């Protein structure tokens, strides 16, 4: 018996298949009928897929059962420390380091004592044209969870 393929190895095969087939992440998300950001995160190993979703994406990308099996595993969520210095990822960390305390204060002022869920959560990325250069708009949409004693 062989071990189940590591999620990182499955993700590398998915990325390669997407590029070689000249598909966008939006194309794959549409095929899975799933939100784009969630779909990309799942295919990069951060969420498990159902058996049906895993089969559908593997058929769409011509990937084998080893990838399908890996996609259904529970992930170890988080970021590879080697990726933390990537400029795009680092800028998100920088933005939260600068604005995180202000966001916390504003959430508490508006909602009370609690947090924004990252489990009951939606996220979206879009482009907004601007004469000074296009803008990246990232929307975090999480359920408010109040602390209950």
TrEMBL record:
<feature type="domain" description="Cyanate lyase C-terminal">
    <location>
        <begin position="78"/>
        <end position="149"/>
    </location>
</feature>
<dbReference type="InterPro" id="IPR036581">
    <property type="entry name" value="Cyanate_lyase_C_sf"/>
</dbReference>
<keyword id="KW-0456">Lyase</keyword>
<dbReference type="InterPro" id="IPR048564">
    <property type="entry name" value="CYNS_N"/>
</dbReference>
<dbReference type="InterPro" id="IPR008076">
    <property type="entry name" value="Cyanase"/>
</dbReference>
<feature type="active site">
    <location>
        <position position="91"/>
    </location>
</feature>
<protein>
    <recommendedName>
        <fullName>Cyanate hydratase</fullName>
        <ecNumber>4.2.1.104</ecNumber>
    </recommendedName>
</protein>
<feature type="active site">
    <location>
        <position position="94"/>
    </location>
</feature>
<dbReference type="InterPro" id="IPR010982">
    <property type="entry name" value="Lambda_DNA-bd_dom_sf"/>
</dbReference>
<dbReference type="Pfam" id="PF02560">
    <property type="entry name" value="Cyanate_lyase"/>
</dbReference>
<comment type="function">
    <text>Catalyzes the reaction of cyanate with bicarbonate to produce ammonia and carbon dioxide.</text>
</comment>
<dbReference type="Pfam" id="PF21291">
    <property type="entry name" value="CYNS_N"/>
</dbReference>
<dbReference type="InterPro" id="IPR003712">
    <property type="entry name" value="Cyanate_lyase_C"/>
</dbReference>
<feature type="active site">
    <location>
        <position position="117"/>
    </location>
</feature>
<comment type="similarity">
    <text>Belongs to the cyanase family.</text>
</comment>
<dbReference type="GO" id="GO:0008824">
    <property type="term" value="F:cyanate hydratase activity"/>
</dbReference>
């Amino acid at each position: 018996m062989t071990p189940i393929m590591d999620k990182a190895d499955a993700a590398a095969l998915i990325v390669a298949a997407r590029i070689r087939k000249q598909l966008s992440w939006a194309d794959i998300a549409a095929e899975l009928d799933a939100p784009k950001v969630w779909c990309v995160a799942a295919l990069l190993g951060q969420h498990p897929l159902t058996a049906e979703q895993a089969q559908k994406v593997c058929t769409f990308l011509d990937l084998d059962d080893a990838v399908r099996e890996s996609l259904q595993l529970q992930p170890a969520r988080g970021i590879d420390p080697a990726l933390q210095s990537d400029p795009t990822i680092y800028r998100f960390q920088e933005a939260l380091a600068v604005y995180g305390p202000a966001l916390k204060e504003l959430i508490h002022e508006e909602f009370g004592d609690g947090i924004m869920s990252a489990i009951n959560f939606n996220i979206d990325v879009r482009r907004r044209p601007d004469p000074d250069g296009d803008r990246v708009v990232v929307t975090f949409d999480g359920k408010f969870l109040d602390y209950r004693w």
